[in-house]
Specification:
3-stranded mixed beta sheet, 5 helices, 188 residues, alpha+beta, disordered C terminus, single chain
Length: 188
């Protein structure tokens, strides 16, 4: 296995374990020439599933393309690489479970959007803007409106918890600002 950093062909396996989905083996390797570490994955080679593009063209299913799209959508967002790998594994699992030879690209796009919506809403909107190819701002607003409604509903449910006064504008139980919570001891 060639090192991706120095291109030397001499490495040793430091750690080896099954991936979360059980369909791959994750290996941490250390290059004996430069000492840097990198990760490789070993997978079963199956008959390739082909993706049917919007224009009817067909190309091999490539999990790396999905990962690259997720990485672009999640750029500068608090989403770990492990979380992205797990998303790709779930998508790949859905595709191989439901299709034998060909999968429409729209199916993959919907899966990516569903997964991103659960992980990071900004990344979801970024991906949707490219995937859905919005023609104008109105289409973009139509896409984010449900996100805003669900966020408002969640915020509304937080303020109406039992024991909390809805709309108390930061006043504590005594009616004045700052009188709730922990009490300070008077100085002596």
């Amino acid at each position: 296995m060639k090192c991706p950093f120095c291109k030397a062909d001499n490495s040793r396996v430091v750690d080896s374990r099954a991936s979360a989905d059980g369909f791959a083996i994750r290996r941490r390797r250390e290059c004996l020439a430069c000492g840097r570490r990198y990760t490789t994955y070993e997978r079963i080679e199956e008959s390739p599933i082909r993706v049917v593009k919007k224009d009817g063209a067909r190309e091999p299913f490539d999990r790396r393309k999905i990962l690259m799209g997720l990485m672009k959508a999640c750029e500068k967002r608090p989403v770990s690489m492990d979380a992205l790998e797990e998303i790709v594994a779930r998508i790949e699992h859905h595709v191989t479970d439901q299709f034998e030879r060909e999968v429409p690209c729209q199916f993959i796009g919907r899966l990516v959007m569903r997964e991103l919506r659960k992980v990071d809403q900004v990344a979801y909107v970024r991906f949707a803007s490219v995937y859905r190819d919005f023609k104008d701002v109105a289409e973009f607003v139509d896409e984010i409106r449900p996100l805003l409604k669900s966020k408002a509903a969640k915020a509304g449910s937080k303020t109406s918890k039992p024991g909390g006064a809805k709309g108390s504008a930061g006043k504590g139980p005594g009616g004045s600002k700052g009188s709730g919570g922990s009490k300070k001891k008077p100085r002596s």
